[in-house]
Amino acid sequence: MGQYDRHVFVCTSGETCPTQGDTEKYVKILREGLKKAGRQGDVRINKAGCFSQCGHGPMVVVYPDDVWYAGVQESDLDEILTSHIVGGRPVERLRYEPGIAGPNKKSEAELKAIEAAHVARQAAALPAVTWKRVCRSDEVPTDGMKQFSVNGVDLLIINAGSEFFAYQAVCPHEAFPLADGIHDGCTLTCLEHLWQFDLKTGAPQGDAQEGLRGYRLKAEQGEIYVTIES
Amino acid sequence: MKVVVTAKNGTRDFACDPGEKILHAGLRHGIELPYECATGTCGTCKARLVTGRTESEWPEAPGGRYLKDAAEFLMCQSLARENCALEVGIALKDSGVSAPRALAGVVRGLRPLTHDVVAFEVDLDGPLDFDAGQFALLTVPGIAGARAYSMVNFDRRAERLAFVVKKKPGGAVSEWLWGPRVEGARVGLFAPMGHATFQPGLARHVLCIAGGSGIAGMMSILSLACEAGHFAELDGHVFFGVRTARDAFFFDELEAFRARYPERLAVTVALSDEDVPESLSAAYPGFAFARGFIHAVAGERMKGRFAETRAWVAGPPPMVDAALRLLLREARLPPAEIRYDKFS
Fold it and tell me: Residue A157 belongs to what domain range?
C-alpha cells in the first residue's frame, strides 16, 4: 500500500505537453478541486516530466489505476476529477490507448507543427499593437519619401521600391527635414550637411553622429500604418 | 567673459570679449564650433544655454526657426552677457583650417562686372593666411550684421582680399556697395571662414559647379590649383552657370586658367534663360557652351567621369541643392568628396 489512494501526474516540463495546454494551470485546477472535495490528504497531484508520448498531450496519468489520458483540455479536468480521481470511474472518452507499449512520440514534422501553432497562439495573445494609419501607399512615390504627421508625431515615410520605412522626420543633427534630402534605396542623405543613414536600420553612416528613430510600419491593402508608443 | 562649451566629445572653454559674438570668440581661439553661414540664416551654430545669460543682436534671424525652445540660441548672433555654460549637440572636430580673427581694411578698386555684379578688393591692415575656397564676414560701419563673401583671389600672407557681390534688392550692404561712398571706406572683416577648401597635393580630379557669384570661391581654388600644377596630372572641370550673356563675368580670367592647362582643364558655361549667342561662343572658342541649368549640364557632360573626383559647389540655394542631388545620386560621390558652404 502506497502513501496515497491515487497519484496523479500532469506533464508540466516535457517538451510538448506544456505547449499544447497550460499544464501548470491544470495542476492548480486539480489541486483546488481536490481541496473543495476534501480529498487533498489522500490524493496527490504531481507535476511530472516527459512521459515520452510527445504530441499526444497534454497528458495526465492516474495511478494505481494505470489510466492514461491524452489530449486533455482544461474543460475536461472537472470530469476527470469528479468521475475518476474522486469517484473512481475513469473517463473512457479521454483514455490514451495507442496500441503500442513504451515510448510513442509523434514524428518530428508533427511536433514542429505543434510548436508552430503554439508560437502563433502566443503571438496572438500579446497585447494588441495599435497601428495608426499614416497615408495611402501611393501618396509616397516609388523611390521617394514624404513627411506626415500622426498623433502630433512628425514621420518620414520612405518608399524604397519593394519596402516602406518610417523614421523621425528631421535630421538628428540640425533638425533639417529629411524629406528634403535624398535616398538611393540603401542610404538616406540629409542635404543640409550630408549626414547619412542606413535606409533599412536608421544607423548613422559616415559623418553622422547619431542614428534615426524608427517606427514599426506595415503596408496593407494600399494603406500605410505605423506604431507610435507614447 | 568666460564661455564653457560642452560637446559630445568633451568640454572646451574660451574668453569672449564684450560685444564679441560667441561663435567668433570660440573660432578665434581655435575651437571648431559648428557653423555654416555664420550670418544668422542656416541654424547650424545653434547651442543650448545651461547657465549664464546671452543676448542676440538679431532676434529675428531666419536661422531662429531651427531653435526648439527659449534655451537655444544662435552663436553667430549672440553675445555673452555673463560667464556662460553652453551645450552643442554634436562632437567638435578638428577642422584643419586656420582659426579666423577680426581684422579691418579699406575698400579699393570697386568696379562693375555686369549690370548687377560688382568686384572690389579690401586692402588689409595686416596680412592674412587663408585656404582657397574660404570666405570672410564683412561688416560695414553703420549697417547691422555681417555678410559672407568668398575670397576670389588666393595669396599666402594676403594683404588684399578680392570679392564679387551680386546686387540684392533691399540688401543693406548690397545697396551700400552700389552707393556713392564706397571706394576708400573702412570695413571690418572676420576671416577666414568656411570648410569648402582646396588643398594642393589632393590626388583627385577637380569638379567645380558654380552658379552666378558662386564662382568667387572657385576662382580662388583654380588660382591655387593652377599655381600648384594640379592640372598637369589631374583633370579639372569647371561648370559655370549664369542666366544670360549679359550676366557673364570672369570669362577672361577663366580662359587664362584654361589656357595654362588646355589638355586637362575644361570650362563649360551654361545659360539658363536664353540660347547661347554666337558672339559669345565665338569670343571664347576654348569653352564649351550649353543652354540649361548648370547642374543639369554638368550631370550630362560628366556622366561616367566622376571617379576619383572631388566636387565643389556654390551658388543660389536651389542650384546648390540640385547639384548635391546630382553628385550624391547620379555621380554617387561620397559626402567627403563634396565641398560646399551654404550661405544665402
Answer: 131-227
